[in-house]
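Closing statement on the 3-methyl-2-oxobutanoic acid sub-project.
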Amino acid sequence: MARRIVIFDTTLRDGEQCPGASLSPTEKLEIARQLARLGVDVIEGGFPIASAGDASAVKMIAQELRGPTIAALARSLAADIDAAAAALVPAKKKRIHVFLATSPIHRKYKLRKAQAEILRQSVWAVQYAKRYTQDVEFSPEDASRTEPEFLFQVIEAVIRAGATTVNIPDTVGFAIPDEFGALIAGIVKHVPNIERANISVHCHNDLGLSVPNSLAAIKNGASQVECTVNGIGERAGNASLEEIVMTLKVRQGFYGVTTGIDTRQIYKTSRLVSTLTGLVVQPNKAIVGENAFRHESGIHQDGILKYRRTYEIIRPEEIGLGASQLVLGKHSGRHAFSQRLAALGFRPSQQELERAFARFKDLADKKKEVFDDDLVAIVEEYLPSEQETYKLVYVHTTSGTETVPTATIRLSKQGKVFQDAACGDGPVDACYKTIDRMSGLSAELVDYTLRSVTKGKDALGEVSVRLRHRGIQVAGRGTSTDIIEASAKAYVSAVNKLVSSTNRRSYVKRRQALHP
Ligand code: KIV
Ligand code: ZN
């Protein structure tokens, strides 16, 4: 049977240890719930001695989540271990994770301690933590820069003291895969009692090698990897959970191991972590980047339309994303263009298609990405013109810390004014819910951006939205000195485009019925 790799998630501890990513205890709990749905084996909830917020986050997570093991970090000091143990009291399955630096540079400049002292303190810390739980992990910090013989000695001693997991951190991201793999192989070979503990690795990304190093370690005997969602963490970050898990899945034949991760939860988890930490995922990030499943080159789009696997090694559904997207731009070919028109309900004749394609190429040269409403505009020569079905007449919202955000909206349609109201998560959301109710279209808000188009306190704000409804994507824009009004205007303009394109679809169908 395939070896099962333990996924130890440290998004809430090491991941949060990065500039600007501070999370409140309730935000940590929300992420922890999603990590449990994702199927991680261990959640490191925080470093309780470091702050009251961390202690209470670990406690809240330990209280609620019964599936994964909950871990808390502690230096090899009594006060730290006591704080970790106190936060973990409610946990069904708990782990205390103690660490102490072992490398010459840390011993000399940071700790000012000799090898013998480090060895003694490591053993003491593990024994002290064992008073609280059987499950104790020990990390020789900066292990990859520690003399191997001394590292083997420390590992053997902490296992004898009761450590059930020994974690080998590449604290400063200095290791390279061949070397790190050999270090793990050396531990397997030279630590006599190693079979009594799990070998874990914890790699940082300073040279962009955290994932390859983690994978090399797995190949050489590591059975646990420590990682974070979106690879967030100290400096250049930690090894990315989604990249490790998907590599092990896609290249199962090479690694021969499994994990307990439900990969369909990956995208959702990535979005949640990005939203709550405010750390934007780079568009070309492997697995979860915005462009990871988007194809623009004409050759690639043609290949994808003929057989997905020509250019896709992961089905987007496997990570919980909808179908991959063919982005229409200047590199796109006729095949993708006519497929998109068909999806929008248009079936132009060959001659019409050639004309529309030429105009599309023209536009794509000027515009980075061509959206569905641009396509609709291109083919509108032979279709009825777009109508402004709804007009925003009045918008009023209430919101505040003690108030349920509510919007009242008046729209006019064919000269008649009508009104409705709804609540939402904020004033903009309340407006959008109200407009959805009034139009009867429940569109998905794919994108919302607000920018100031003029300077000063009375600056004009411009809101751009992108909506998706039944496979059609349209953009809308609105400007006003009031951002709520600009938001409502943008939404109404996008809704008008959706209504027009729905009307066009039925017009095309009618026309086809008359002139098949
Ligand atoms: O990078 C590191 O060495 C750590 C340890 C505390 C495991 O985060
Ligand atoms: Zn770390």
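The CA atoms of residues 398 and 411 lie 18 Å apart. With this model delivered, the sub-project is considered complete and its resources will be redirected to Aim 3.
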